Fold each of these.
Amino acid sequence: MRMITGILNLICFALLLLKYPARIYHWDELNDRLQLLHKTISGLVCLTIGLHIGTILPYIGKVPADVPVLGGLIVIVYLLLVTLCHTMKDHEQKMHWHRIMSVCLLAVIVGHVVCAVI
């Protein structure tokens, strides 16, 4: 179950990341659909993060220490991303920080998955 929740989380995050190339490459239909689903998918990320944490807690001592540390960092960066996006008024500045936090989140998620698999 713990891997399923992690994979669901990864799929949701990948759908959120797909929004950027859809906009850049003018895949208008996909971009419009992803825009409509953006908040829903973000909510699913929050839900799957909670489920993932709940299902992995019994196994936390059986994995290398960097896995839960990176997992905690994912939560912190995600909360920072959401907080910044809901508190900033300037749209351009908001999107600038949204993209920076998304890249940071991607890097930490890749590290978390690599450490968990190895």
Amino acid sequence: MDTIQDIRAFDQWILDVVQDYIEKQDCYASDAVLAIDSKNFTVYVESTKNLTADAEKYQLAELIRQDEKGCTEPDCDATNVIACKYFFVR
């Protein structure tokens, strides 16, 4: 059975990957998406052209927001929604 700690850890992993993308955006292809391999739960950023059949993709623009100072940051609400799709806690 999954725990709330599992969800939080997975959510943090997604947040970290999105933050890395924000910091190094110029290093990624213009069609880059957040990908999660549904077989082993690997989280990464990849060009849509290079995704494997097992990867579920999420648009990065939907996972990024502007804070009150206008700085770009991961959208923790959006990443949490994704993390909760992969774990079930009773």
